[in-house]
Amino acid sequence: MHDRQKIARTAAAALLASCVLWASPASARLDNDTPDTPTPSDYGGVGLIEMRNARFMPDGYFSLLGTVKYPDDRVAMTFQALPWLETTFRYTINYALPPIGQRALYDRSFDLKVRLWNEGEDIPQVAVGVQDILGTGVYSGEYLVASKAFGPVDASVGMGWGRLASRAALPNPFGLISSRFDTRPVFSGEGGTPLLSSLFRGKNVGLFGGFEYRTPIPNLTLKLEYSSDAYTRESDRQHANYSRIPANIGVSYRFWSNVDVGVSFIGGKEVAGTFSFSFDPDIPAFPKRIDPPGPFVARADDVVDAARTAQQIQTGTQGDESWRVHFVDLTKTSPLAAKPLEDTNTANAYLIGGVAAPATLKVTDKWVQGRTLVVQIGAKSHKADDNLCNELSPALGQTAGVQDVAVVGLDWNPIQFCGASAQQIASEVKPTLVEADAAASDTTPPPTLEVTQRDIDRMRDAIIAANLVVEGIAAGNGIVEVEISNPHYLRDAEAIARTVRALSATAPGGVTIFRITTVVGSVPVTQVTIPRTQIDGIGDHVATPAELWNATIFEAAPSHPDYPSSPGFPRFTYSIFPDFLPAAFDPDNPLYIGLGVSGSAGVELFRGFSISGEATYSVYNTFGNIKRKSNSLLPHVRSDTSLYLKRGASGIDNLTVSYATKFAPEVFAKFQAGYIESMFAGVGGEVLYRPLTARWALGFDLWDVQQRDYDRLLGVRPYRTVTGNATFYFQTPFHGYEGYVSVGRYLAKDYGATLQLDRRFDSGIRIGAWMTLTNVSAKKFGEGSFDKGILLVFPIEWGLPFSSTAQYTLPLRPIQRDGGQPLNNTRTLYDATYSSSYGALEDQWTDVFH
Q1: How many other C-beta atoms are found inside a 10 Å radius of the C-beta of residue 722?
Q2: Which residue, of 103, 557, 678, 684, is most buried by count of CB atoms within 10 Å of its CB?
Q3: This prediction's pTM
């Protein structure tokens, strides 16, 4: 190595080290998270103009960007996946590098940027990024960049590799570690494979930098940068110089809080125009709806007193004891933060505070009767032979005046007694009806707990008026039980809350418990038991959703509930809706679209057994312009999609006979036969084990399918196969992330596994990605090397001011091939039961009980 080159390389290494030491986390003191979003670069993602900086959008934000500029137009989607991780998918139309026979290169690429440290008083914010790590390598590059704010000026300086070193400044400092860093591999292959072998490699590095200046003109930002991208490949190919000077200048104007429009002058030659739209997926576009819920109605004091008297007579607990003082232990782990409910009537009772409910029980009420602490629990939350006394023994000595514990159920029947005094009260907790009548014989006739058929009709009508279906309703012993299905609201938690609102307004005052069972596809999922005293508190604005959550019992619904007042069978359903079908990111054209009208209809002949179908009529489409033909070496299970789009633009989407049931309270099953999806018909089924309080589930599916004709009518093609998977679903406690790992056999008879990871927001939006690796080699798979893509799910109610269960799902693949392709069945059992799961109810509870 020549001395001059060694000195230069050492200087570059010193510069790299100084950036790292300058931004040492030990020196960091300030977190520079600001409420306004930074401006985007022309590549997508936060940056200057062509170069990136070390800034990030707020956590969870999503942005769309379009840049028009010769020689390459760009469309990009950026997702702030974590507070420190920015991800960008970009589609570029490069007119300077067209393959033979094409007018342009249609390039798909994926970028990552990671924040290393936050900005401090004396140190910059530092980030490292990789550009085009999952693409063709045309835009491949890496960078280390630091940004520091000085009043209205935000300055950035960085070091780049790969494309970002095409205007070389210094030898690669990593060459001091190993000489292999001096050589950057030239990409060759089908594309889509991670370009890990080229990371931070190359003979030289480039230096770039610039600043953003927030001008005195509101919302107007001036940008100036020195670029290390010389557009070498484009200039050599076209015998032109697309970057005559290394400087770019531009302005960006923020029209609203989430819309940026920019104009810039690139390389002293080209003018670029940029439009960017960003938003927070947690916030609906219309926070207020045209169908707001009704209020929670609290019972009047005299009604509560009457119910108290009736309950005391029924249970034999007349006396001076205060009515059931409710206790909520907010020291237990809970995602809901709240202030404890203050009791206003404690003159003749002990206020229970400091007694922790054991984890295996769900305690709905506690009160003191003499020297005994009476604990009311869910009747199904324990086994008959459980030693509840051992679990509740810590309560003794923690509550003033308490010596014994008595455990009763929701129906006030005694379950277990601990201690002599508790044994004495056992005979008083549930006296016979004759004793209760005798106790009341010399008094005015007491209030009654009876619920009449008229009361039941009123409650059912109120729930139906809330746009819910009452599958069954019954009442007795102070408890109203109702089974509901939810065709109207995105979240089952909202359906439960609206049911409670309707019951609180119509249920007789003697009803003290609401028990609601959610039903999905005629299958009962979750049973929720809510004490009415807490609803009274919410209606009077003295209780919180946290207290209600802690007082509510959640159980897996029985497999075969038997409620009267069912609507009966058969049941008919139908709907008509617009259809929008995009085919994006084709290697030959950025977008094809189809517009049409779809309709669905179905009949449920008896509980769980239904016949249903959906068809689409195409009004307009550009699918006839698709020229690309499949060259797949695998069975054409998906790569002939263009033929289905062209010949079957109007056709039958699905037509099936299905049966859904439960094998056990936590085991769901579904069997289906017919035209299952647009490209396959067959027969099969799915089984899901979903423990109630677990944030995981296990599913199995198996299908015998045959390929449908391209016209999507009733014919089939010769290809037939068996496909199936075992799938592990999981919900993490981090930033709303969830996903699944699926292992099995795919439609092209290949074996492998799929990993999908999504982030679910409170609004119902889901943003995620998946990848599938099978025993098919990258060469045999073809362009793209393996199946992967981005998933976007947008609920209709996020963008419109009314409630709806409809969602628009958009899977985006860089290219459609045949390896690793699953059956596109209707909603999986996991998706169907998600909204009624314990985890989903927990996440949504605060929003709907307010």
Answers
A1: 13
A2: 557
A3: 0.81
